[in-house]
Amino acid sequence: MLALAKKVGKQTAHRLVYEVAMRAHQTEDGRSLKQALLESAAVREHLSEDAIESLLDYRANTGMCRELVDRVLNLSQVERDDEGQGR
Q1: Residue with the larger pLDDT of the pair 41 and 29
Q2: How far apart are CA 57 and CA 20, in angstroms?
Q3: Residue 46 has pLDDT above 60, yes or no
Q4: Taking Cα atoms as reference points, which of 37, 47, 52 lies closest to residue 6?
Q5: Whole-Å CA distances, 26 to 7, 15, 63, 75, 78
Q6: Is the pLDDT of residue 87 over 60?
Q7: Considering the entire predicted model, what is its pTM?
Q8: How confident is the model at residue 53 (pLDDT cuts 50, 70, 90)?
Q9: How many CA atoms lie less than 13 Å away from 30 in the CB half-sphere?
């Protein structure tokens, strides 16, 4: 929605994405949000297929999740080691 908001404004982007999401949700053929966005002329007027694909790529949008999980696991291991040594 933020990429679309840069082109059409926040309120319009919110309305467009909401309408597309509701259409996708209400279809009986199991249409995904991605498919619905790609089929929406109003969205495609402002975002290319590549842009939509990129925006919906979870690998590009997980930020520091992997590092944070590793930190938590390491801290958990340290705490378990400390408990095992009676600290």
Answers
A1: 41
A2: 18
A3: yes
A4: 47
A5: 27, 16, 31, 44, 48
A6: no
A7: 0.67
A8: very high
A9: 0
Distance CA 40, CA 34 (A): 10
Higher pLDDT: 16 or 83? It is: 16
Answer whether 34's CB lies under 8 Å from 82's CB.
Answer: no
Q: What pLDDT, on a 0 to 100 scale, did the predictor assign at position 81? A: 84
59 and 70 Cβ atoms separated by less than 8 Å: no
Range 52-87 burial, b when 16+ CB lie within 10 A, else e = beebeeeeeeeeeeeeeeeeeeeeeeeeeeeeeeee
Distance CA 77, CA 71 (A): 10
